[in-house]
Amino acid sequence: MDVSRRSIVACLVLAWFTDGRFPLYLAPMAGVTDLVFRQICKELGADVMVTEFVSAEGIMQADDRTRKYTEFTEAQRPVGVQLFGADGGRMGEAAKKIIDWKRPDFIDINFGCPVNKVVARNGGSSLLRDCGILTDVATAVARAVGDQVPVTAKMRIGWDEKSVNAVEVAKILEDCGMAAIAVHGRTRSQGYGGEADWEVIDAVARAISIPVIGNGDITCGADVMRRKRETAVAGVMIGRAAMHNPWVFREAKHFLQTGVETPGIDLEERWKLVIRHCHLAVASGRGGNEKQTLTGMRSRLMAYCKGFPGAKCLRLKLCHVSSISEVEELAEFSIHSADFTTPSENE
């Protein structure tokens, strides 16, 4: 990184890491971390938001559907917009457009997505196999953005177990002008299976001078405390655990402050949040009318059911709902009926 870029990065301090703070990020998840779900997680204690990943090409083509993914509310700040692509120049131009539309607190570059349709377009984690293109992308975005907002990156620890190159890649990204790096402790070939390798995450955090956010297998406050104590990460990122338990952020903060787990969230409170999520989604109008919105939310509703009594039966019913009233009826039945409490059905 040249001297001028080092000076810019030095000025672009991510305030949520200052004064000894240990921020909890909501991980960007396609089809999950939309405007409504980010609002819910923010209310429950998430410190930093990142949008679903956004195609740089979609932004450059002024695609309205793509632009929708960049939306956020002031209450969700600090929030970053995550971009993916493999053309540094186009990525940089897309970043500038996003900043002009609605200045986010940072731009995040996706070097971690394992999904085939992204990798096939030479985006996401595919760039971990080509550090030349990765360098070009990171450098181009950082230079295009300049001193307007910080640029960060999210990555995996490598393409597969034979090519774990996270420390090397992190050093490159730091030199390219990234202000922070989030590291998911799995390789691309692992997908979301197996265990996250926190030894590699820790090695990355100790190898570079910018903040590193650890990601992978964080499910409760005790997990957050353990990673804070045992690694050099400056914060953690929570993804899949939040899908069924957005209270995890509140629980984690309580544990960090007191060392004590909070009481579990009872079934009625969980259903209240599920129903509120439905109402917020319909009111937002982003999924179409009520039927279209609820149809699109079915997988999200099924995810909420993890740990519910009779979860298997509930999921079978939720995969057919098309109105809020149907969800409310299922909630009422779930809370008050013994039919949903058969031990063999719990999952």
Structure overview:
There is one protein chain. The chain is of the alpha/beta class. It folds into two domains: 3-258, Aldolase class I (TIM Barrel); 267-345. It contains 17 helices and nine strands. The protein has helices spanning 3-11, 35-43, 56-60, 64-68, 88-101, 116-119, 131-145, 166-176, 198-207, 221-230, 240-244, 248-258, 267-284, 290-296, 298-304, 311-318, 324-336; strands at 24-26, 49-50, 54-55, 79-84, 106-111, 151-156, 181-184, 212-215, 235-238. Strands 1, 2, 3, 4, 5, 6, 7, 8 and 9 form a nine-stranded parallel sheet that branches. Strand 8, helix 10 and strand 9 form a beta-alpha-beta unit. The protein is globular. It starts with a helix and ends in an 11-residue tail after the last helix.
CATH class of the largest domain: Alpha Beta
Mean of residue pLDDT? 90
The CATH superfamily of the largest domain is Aldolase class I
Which CATH architecture of the largest domain is right? Alpha-Beta Barrel
Give the overall form. globular
Helix content: 40-55%
The CATH topology assignment of the largest domain is: TIM Barrel
State the oligomer.
single chain
End-to-end CA span: 50 Å
Radius of gyration: 20 Å
Please identify the structural class as seen in this structure: alpha/beta
- Tell me the major beta sheet: 9 strands, parallel
Order of helices and strands: HEHEEHHEHEHHEHEHEHEHHHHHHH
Count of DSSP strands: 9
Give the count of helical stretches: 17
Indicate how many domains the architecture comprises: 2
